[in-house]
Amino acid sequence: MGLRFGTDGVRGIIGETITDLTVAIIAEATLRYWYRRYGVSKVLVGYDTRFMSKDFATIIASIAREHGADVNVVSGPTPTPVISWAVLKHRFNLAFQVTASHNPPRYNGVKVIGGDGAPARPEDTNGIEGVINSEYDDILRSVRDIEYAQAPSINIRDEYIDSITSWFSARFKPRRLRVLVDPLHGAAVGYTAEALRRLGFEVTEVNSDQDPNFGGKAPNPEYEYIKDDVDAVVNGRFDMAIANDGDGDRVAMVVKGLGHLDANRIIPVFLRVLWGLGMVKRGVARTVATTHLIDDVAASLGIKVVETPVGIKYIVDAMNRGEADIGGEESGGLAYSWHIPEKDGVYSGVMGACIEASEGISKIYGELTSRFGERRFRRVDIKANDAKALVNRLSQELKRAMVNMGELDRFIEIDGLKAVYRDKSWVLVRGSGTEPVIRIYSEALSDGRVNELIEPVVSIINRAIAG
Fold first, then answer.
1. Would strands 326-329 and 70-74 be described as parallel, antiparallel, or unpaired?
2. Measured between alpha carbons, how far is residue 358 from residues 2, 177, 364 in Å?
3. Which domain, by its residues, includes 236?
4. Residue 433 pLDDT more than 80?
5. How many angstroms from the chain centroid is the CA of residue 125?
């Protein structure tokens, strides 16, 4: 059967790839694999606000109980990072989160989280796929005989919020700010906002009804989906805005003077502040698609940079190896070695508010870019079936084009193909691990240089798709 784990779990369109049966197959195969390799006694099942998420969670919990596990299901839609936190706090051996993260409303999916609180690693997801392929007929018979029933619920919201607000109140004494919080109708409703209220911020939460249609948009905190939040800050109604994605593991911010902040702007600021607090000593990890401004800041602080494939699990691996204390990716995910081995958009949103209310994000970012240069960034997404295979097939043609785009420093091929140039610019092309899309990224010190790098690559990809 063609169920495959991508960068962050299994995702697909509800009623096509993701159905009662496929969710049951994923759960059964995962439990078989996990029992054999690690042993399982306690399982946690979470879910977001999407169509069918709670029903899928019931299916997973029922299958886990058939395996003899002590199972708890969250009492309501819960952010993915809170599931990770609860795994560590309550010593679950395994967790499932029903979510498709930032994908459009017609999608859903399943994330698998190990007993260490981290996303299942590639060797484990490969193992689960192997069980599906080799035991498919037996799995099908097993899941068709299961009677689905509700499992005991667990409320972990308040203790998670207590935990993170205690951490921030011990390190920041921020002035009171007017903060607009936008969970985009997702699982972070009532999380980021409540944490900020407890820290003394004046908070207004919008899009706080848990709408499975997400207001008709993708629950993705990129600029096009949070324009109203940007306007609210620019027009002076709020001092800053914080937005999370559908399962609360990503973050974006809006501050006066800078407007919309994606992770390429957030991570360098957080790195400098957290280094000053003594929290970052070993290094910083970033994905291959994330700004190299991080590299300049890290060099100035005397810490190393670890470059990884796209996916927070690779950032977490760098932390587990002792190479990094903080890490992130351009899509809005940040992780912290002292917190949980998973990206946490709620924690990062609170971090941003505390920094804005103390030193000021615009001030810090301005200091960094004055010293190292303002980076311009662009990403182009092109729909393509078998995206990774197409990028691999075109790699030699792409390399020949990239060699002629400037003074080449090196190629990096840990995830797609990336060319880095001596003028602090780079271009990357890779197949997405979560959608049938080829993503092309470029960064440089000017918009002109960004386009100079990205357009030839886009042309090569489009020609190949057109045939």
1. unpaired
2. 50, 10, 11
3. 158-372
4. no
5. 18
